[in-house]
Queue: 2 jobs
Job 1
Amino acid sequence: MKILIVGSGGREHAIAWKVAQSPKAEKIYCAPGNAGIAEYAECVDIGAMEFDRLAAFAKEQKIDLTVVGMDDPLVGGIVDVFEAEGLRVFGPRKNAAILEGSKAFSKDLMKKYGIPTAAYENFDDPARALQYLEHAKFPIVLKADGLALGKGVLICNTLEEAQEGVRSIMMDKKFGSAGNQMVIEEFMTGREVSVLSFVDGKTIRIMTSAQDHKRALDGDQGLNTGGMGTFSPSPFYTEEVDAFCREHIYQKTVDAMAAEGREFKGIIFFGLMLTEDGPKVLEYNARFGDPEAQVVLPRMNNDIVDVFEACVDGTLDQVELEFQDNAAVCVVLASQGYPVKYEKGFEIRGLEHFKGKDGYYVFHAGSKFQDGKIVTNGGRVLGVTALGEDLKKARANAYEAVKWVDFDNKYCRGDIGKAIDEA
Ligand code: AMP
Ligand code: GLY
């Protein structure tokens, strides 16, 4: 088969690496890709939002399956464009990707179908939102409705902060049109867990759990980022939690989408909070997490192409997922200054140390070729993943491997997976 992957980050590198292991994959392309992905795929210089050019490329090259890694093209309707051209594609259509694309939609869906989540109200009028805050309990959480690179969520401790937040989201449009609507919701406390799943419209198959570290600095300080590191599995995702989520969250979400005429095919990423009152949904995403994919996929035994095809064909009920009984930790190596301002173009040294080392992976998030070298090309540059027989060993291995690579302005958190010690 010829397979096209759409995206250019560490997640797409992990997907390309996993697809490359499938005996079915004869030729892999990635648009636009990066210098790490180029090891497994031919990178094609077409942007992820250029749907018509991508579809034309897929037709020309007779691509058998396209896998969309990123949220923006999914929410923008890339799957509909490909399907209209008769192309096979893995991912939700636009009317289903709204599960991630609109927080107001996903909150209303959860309320309507009794899926546990924080209490909330939706607003499209800033005056009404400001009025509502007068009688609210603090801290309180404000969320821009649309996609905002993980930055559209504000946790406000006081009325003044929340008023300022409403103004910046809805009036100053800090996150653009993502702030045309807003969700105001109850603040919850508890451990966060990410659970990814494959869905074929009817059947859902749950992958192993993971946990991200969203803040830029050690001790969960600093600004929110796309994710500074992950571990899998989460020791807090117990059998009891799993049983609860299977009964009250996972299948219910798939059935709710189908009942709304928005059949969901692809990946549903459940962002969960384990509260005192039980697990609740913080958010849905309609694609693999980044860097969750970098710890989940190295632990998966299945041929991922089989699973993608089962989702597209609606035969996922015939597939059982299988994960290794081990653990993985991914430490993101970023450019100093990320997520605000950072320099790019520095040579990345030491990548060769990963060659032939089982259980160690370096997934590129932001890299490119320049003058025969591989240089930094983003805020998040690399995701160094290591396996281990348990979480502690995986963490020690990952931090050992972090030393193998270097570039100017490299920085990473030193406490990825520290929560493991409390388990
Ligand atoms: P989201 O994009 O909805 O996952 O929100 C980003 C982050 O904000 C989450 O990972 C949580 O750490 C935090 N967050 C979101 N909603 C809430 C909430 N209702 N209570 C407490 N923290 C929240
Ligand atoms: N790591 C969080 C996300 O991919 O949304």
Job 2
Amino acid sequence: MTASARLLIVGPQGSGKGTQGVLVAEAFGIPVVSTGDIFRANIKAGTELGQQVTAIMEAGDLVPDELTSAIVRDRLSQDDAANGFLLDGYPRNTAQVAHLDEFLGERGETLDAVILLDVPREESLERLRLRAIEQGRADDTAEAIAKRLDIYEQETAPIIEVYAERGIVDRIDGVGSLEAITERIGAALAARGLAQRV
Ligand code: AMP
């Protein structure tokens, strides 16, 4: 059993990956590294990076790979990520997978598991509709949602194949209560010998 874990959580928008990611990371005592959250925090703080990505995010497009990968490299180089981390929203295409492989390879590391949250399209659209009302996210407009769904299907879904070939994908049924889904994820990770801290 290892005491740390290098994880990635993937799923379409509205799959609940943000919520589950936080719970899983807490259980393992590792930080969540969410590129969407990093971008949103920079927009809120009015940084140069924030100004660079505002229009891109509002349109539902992807921030350029080099920029995104540089930010992730920086974040993963911080002390609290030395023994593990949970990536949410990165990598999002095969170019970013290559960037991450290169970075982890330099450190002699690999991802331990990729949690794929499976949620039917109608269910995720309904959750997004609620999120738009509750959180008022600037990129939860119908147009941006449709754009992100297209990008997910065309660019992000292929990364699952890449990781599946490495035998590290755990496909988790993402429908059910919050607790039930968290338990399914914990069980899948335990089956890989990944031990939770709590
Ligand atoms: P998320 O919170 O993961 O839904 O991300 C919100 C938005 O941030 C996306 O629609 C993109 O505009 C941008 N973004 C987040 N992660 C990435 C990434 N890995 N590559 C490029 N753009 C990203």
